Amino acid sequence: MRVAVELLPRGPRPDVVLLVDVLRASTSIALLFERGAREVRVTPSLRLARELDADLVLGEREGIPPEGFFASTSPAEILGLSLPEKRVVYTSENLPAALLAVKDAPHVLLAAFVNGPAAVRRALELARDEVAVVAAGHRGAEALDDALAAGFLAKKLLRARPDAEPDDGARVAAALLKAYPDPQEALWQSASGRLLVSRGFTEDLAQASVIGRTDRVPRLVAFEEVRGQPVFTLIADGPA
Amino acid sequence: MRVAVELLPRGPRPDVVLLVDVLRASTSIALLFERGAREVRVTPSLRLARELDADLVLGEREGIPPEGFFASTSPAEILGLSLPEKRVVYTSENLPAALLAVKDAPHVLLAAFVNGPAAVRRALELARDEVAVVAAGHRGAEALDDALAAGFLAKKLLRARPDAEPDDGARVAAALLKAYPDPQEALWQSASGRLLVSRGFTEDLAQASVIGRTDRVPRLVAFEEVRGQPVFTLIADGPA
Question: Which of A30, A68, B132, B161 has the fewest other C-beta atoms within 10 Å?
Answer without folding.
Answer: A68
